[in-house]
Amino acid sequence: MSPEDTALTVPKAELHLHIEGALEPELAFECARRNGITLPYADVADLRRRYDFSDLQSFLGLYYTGMDVLRTRQDFTDLTDSYLDRARKQGVRHAEIFFDPQAHTTRGVALETVLDGLEASLATSEQRFGVTTRLIACFLRDHGPDSAMATFDELLPHAHKLTGVGLDSAEAGFPPDAFAPVFDRAREAGLRLVAHAGEEGPPEYVWQALDVLGVDRVDHGIRAVEDTALLRRIARDQVPLTVCPLSNVRLRCVDTLDEHCLPRLVDTGVLTTLNSDDPSYFGGYVGDNFHAVRQELGFDDAALREFAANSVRASFLGAGEQDRLL
Ligand code: ES4
Ligand code: ZN
């Protein structure tokens, strides 16, 4: 891709990005070295060769193993700097960044270490990278609602550092409705709400995210195309979907990119955004996702500009801040 390519240059917001999924193998080995940890991989090339997934669960195994090298404030700062630098080069002007508190606290890394490390990078992101940022803390659905509630209690003193909460990790067998109490508390605390739904899970989980959790955006949501009434509802209410095309291919939610439901979503009038999800693992950052859908699905540059505008409108920025990017 040329550096002048619209896929890279159009100003955009990234709304679905797990910071732990931006851990590049080189930084993983560097963190392992300085923390005295031995990764179960021979080298960077060996680790990259394992990025061949059969489904969400097969990815999550590598994702949680990889992030075990993140131990110190500096690790989280370096990780975030690395993402912001790459995102900037792909036209990202605003990023709403997910992190998984439980993935760190359950292995003995304090929430304060994670938050301080992230914040040290984010504090100067606008000056250094021209990227404004927000933070969204995600609950791991496979750890259950009680663990989510305990995590929320821990997060509450830091609520002013967060824009919202989300729900992620293994989806099938973990319906959103169990998390209604913790989402209610987050709403009462003034936080915005998002949830992964309809990635591997059925349309019913998307209904629950909307009607039971009351989310402001649905992460993925692609299986909504299996339910016409649901798709109509999402289009009518302009509930944004944060779609991650390269992720969907890598995790085999779709067989090939040219079979992706993105054109159907757009044709139905859904407010659709393009995002990278876990860019280190899925073969590209957000501009690469823009490029791929133009290449494989026939969207033109005007359509890419529309996806970018959608990302700004679907962001949690105020109207004035959105105007700056539109
Ligand atoms: C994730 Cl692709 C995906 N789906 C669900 N949870 C996740 N956490 C990180 N990446
Ligand atoms: Zn995700």
UniProtKB/TrEMBL annotation:
Protein name (database record): Adenine deaminase
Gene3D superfamilies: Metal-dependent hydrolases
GO BP annotations, alphabetical order: adenine catabolic process; hypoxanthine salvage; nucleotide metabolic process
Site (Important for catalytic activity): residue numbering on this chain: 220
Organism: Halosaccharopolyspora lacisalsi
Functional summary from the UniProt entry: Catalyzes the hydrolytic deamination of adenine to hypoxanthine. Plays an important role in the purine salvage pathway and in nitrogen catabolism.
Active site: 199 (proton donor)
Cellular component aspect of the GO annotation: cytosol
Residues binding substrate: 278
EC number: 3.5.4.2
Enzyme class: hydrolase
Residues noted as binding Zn(2+) in the record, renumbered to the chain: 16, 18, 196, 277
